[in-house]
Amino acid sequence: MSEVYAARRTRLRERCNAGGSAAALVSRPANVRYLAGAAPHGAVLLLGRTGDLLVCSGPPDDRPDRARPDESLPVRSLPGSGGDAAVAATGLAEAQGAESLATEDHHLTVVRHRAMRSVAPRLRLTDLGQAVEQLRVVKDEEEISCLRIGAEIADQALGELLESILVGRTERHLALELERRLVDHGADGPAFATSVGTGPNSGCRGHRPTDRRVEEGDFLSVCLGATYRGYRCEIGRTFVIGTSPADWQIELYDLVFAAQRAGREALVPGAACRDVDRAARQALDSAGYAENLPALSGHGVGLEIDEDPQLAPAAMGKLDACVPVTVEPGVHLPGRGGVRIDDTLVVRPEADGGPELLTITTKELLAL
Fold this sequence. Notes:
By secondary structure, the chain is an alpha+beta fold. Helix content is 33%, strand content 20%.
């Protein structure tokens, strides 16, 4: 992988040079990991005039289950503890003769930025902006493979839960069990806090599990994700507890399912992000649920669970091939509950079979 990380750093350096900076300082952890292979706590990556350097506030964690930095990348650990790697790296950049340093201003605090200026007063600090995040949008096949394995783990954990007895168990208990199963099957951990909603809590995006117990006749909505080698996927499903769903539950589920299918089918290279969102929410809008819809129909995933692109009404830009995104329309009716269906897919051209579905747990409305 060393050549992969080196190539990524080269692309970033080219962008910096085009913007007039010979050096860059990357401090956002996900961006550090993308470029260096690992992001020890507090570490920053310096792309300097005389070479690249991973600067750590302490010795890197060498436990076997932790990600290791690119072996070709020099690592410098600050003596003692409590030092700020970003400040130290800024001083190193000035010592190397750099006249300007591009920094991730959207990640740095004002206090930290001031400390960097004070240690290198002759160095001109410029804004790197979202340059690394933009490089991260299109994934290579190794990254997609990690997402695919993470999706398999999430599918497996969810499938096992559905085979167990659910009535009488609390949302919190079910969420904890799902997260344990993710780790048991090889995940680094959950990709985000697992959401389990029952009855009136079902279908609510970002619902935090409570002590409410599963009851007969409930909608049960579950949203979980696995992290595998740093990459995060997402899956959401809704089920009915009991022998058969009520008519209103079938109607609502069918609407959300149709919306989710429309969104998935719109995932083609060159499609405008806002058009994918429009495709996913059109059926729900026309059925009178406009006020009950989330602000977006999906988003990118990768080293973070919520990345660009955003699939939202005002989203800018178009989709490229090899971009993994979620499609997750849902409707929550206050006091009654709702439905959410969420998949992680990879945008692929029609010649390659169209969008690749990573999360394959059935979307049939099961009565559990």
